[in-house]
Amino acid sequence: MSFVPAAGDKGEAKPAATAAGPEIRILLIEDDGEIAEEIIDDLTDRGYEVIHVADGVQGLERARGGDLSLLIVDRLLPGLDGLAILETLRREKVPTPALVLSALGDVDDRVSGLKAGGDDYLAKPFAFVELAARIEALLRRPVLGRETVLRVGPLELDLVDRTVFRAGRAIELLPREFKLLEYLMRRPGQVMTRAMLLGDVWNYRFVTVTNLVDVHIGKLRRKIDGPDEPQMIHTIRGAGFMLSAPQ
Amino acid sequence: MRGGRHAGVRLALTAAVTFSLFTSLLFGFIYWRTAVVELRRVDNGVERDARALAESTPEGLLRSIRIRMAADFHRITFAAVLDADGRPLEGNLERLPPGLTVDGQAHRTEMAVPGAGTEDVVMVGRRLTDGRLLVLGRSIDSLANLHAALIRALELAILPAVLLSLVAGAVMSRPLQSQIRAIQLATRRIIQGDLSGRLALSGSGDQFDRLASSVNFMLDEIARLLHQAQSTADNIAHDLRTPLTRVRTHLERGRAPGKTHADLQEAVDRAIVGLDQALRVITALLRIGHVERGHRRANFVAVDLGTVVTEIADLFEPFAEEKGLRLRVDIAAPASIHGDRDLLCEAVANLVDNAVKFTPSGGTVTLGLHRRDGVPVIVVADTGPGIPVEERAAVMGRFYRSDMSRQVEGCGLGLSLVDAIVTLHGFRLAIGDGHPGCVVEMACAAAPVRALDPAASH
To answer: Does pTM top 0.80 for this prediction?
Structure first.
């Protein structure tokens, strides 16, 4: 889904990624020219600066150079394997977050990708919204501070008392709803795809056809967004969900 | 063919050699009995006689010798009493036979016989208390004749025995050869492409029958796999062609003259949905293949099945609720097994997903963890229409969809994946009847790898 949300796109909340500043520079190490071109186009449209290298050895050299916000590394590369690049970089204490791409797309590959020093893993073929959401998540690390109360707009979640209030209104949540809300509140304004929610909140790495995540979000939304209140949990068409403070 | 003939010849030769060996052994035994045992008997007899005679009175001794001489019609007995200087006093020997040691023991010696050359004799020399010498002997020529007769008989018997066993071997190997030929003909037909051919069984239950039924079982398996591969290929083609045809239609209509930008966008959106569906099929197939090749045992850890059941129930509960179903969790016996947590979750999730989809509103889906015969069993039961007995095996095949499931979304690969995961773990999956509804049971005990034994599968 590579089309750029057109202006006035049916009033849907705009993915925050489009607001990325030009200072965010991404190194793409990918040997498939056609896919690379599409990725560059899409990410450029989203406001990122993309440097593309098609070869593993050159990719490693460029990644060492610094001034990069993110690496996107294909697993199978001519010259030097994607995982070898990451292992080398991590050994050299290069901390740049990295997203591993792979055509293999099995859980094993995900595990080995993360073990080698990748921060996230995406199997080809992927939707561009999925790529964008994961890039965004890597660039904006979640709020994992020591505070025991999370706040987004009028929404308040107390991690110790396990209570949730929206503008003073107490909201009763099931444990799984609490966990889901906590995850969204740590990433306000970020698009979370179904696969990300399933993987991060429930720790399931499989793809279901069933709209399980939609049902969970629907239940949570009915409790969070009262009938007269402005919406906070948004559905981003073709992408996923986002929690944000009412405008 | 050549193999068969060789086997026949080999069998005949083996029989002949065995037969000859056996005959020789038999003769050897008889020979040993006569040559050694009889000879020893003669030795002992002569020694005993000499001892007895030595103890009789001098007059009694001479009388005994005379009686022996008189009674010996066949002239096989030698007996003599000599004085201390070796002169004969009584008996049929003129002197002490040369070379005979006078020690009371039996010795073999040759005696010249007038007109008959020499003969073998067992002889004992014994000095009496008064200084005289007693010599006793017995001809063993008759024994030697018997030996010669035995060896001649052996020589005469071995040739017909060998011939007889060669013939017997050839006769016995004929049915063997014809059975081998039958197997060769049948396998040749099968090699030429007729996979429906099977080896004939004689019904005797012999080794050939057992071999043939193993081969037939193997052929059944090959035919089944081949059929499965063919229908899988057909199904893949079909399941990919359907969405791709839709994609093509959407794109073609989107670029038709007079369409607006919004129309085009919608067409592209719908095309992407179709492509995603096609990609899902491909991804699922690759995953099943990956799991089936069993590369994932490296990820096996201790997995708490109770947690798996609770978490999957937690994930599916709102989904079931939305469909108007009750999702019941029944953990009767917590258990921990060795396995791949992600894959087991996926398998259970697939089963629950199916149960929720096929159960009409108002029904109940039960996700249980029990223990039967010491084995943890995950049970997914529903109150839906159930699966007819004749379809139960087929639902685990790739792309199987019952008529009723055509309306339900899915790629038809869910149960194949479950089956692959269950097989990887060595677990067992059984589909049963819930009266009403369907009961799927996953027995979580690592079973030995299924043996290629016809008895075990039929």
So the answer is: no
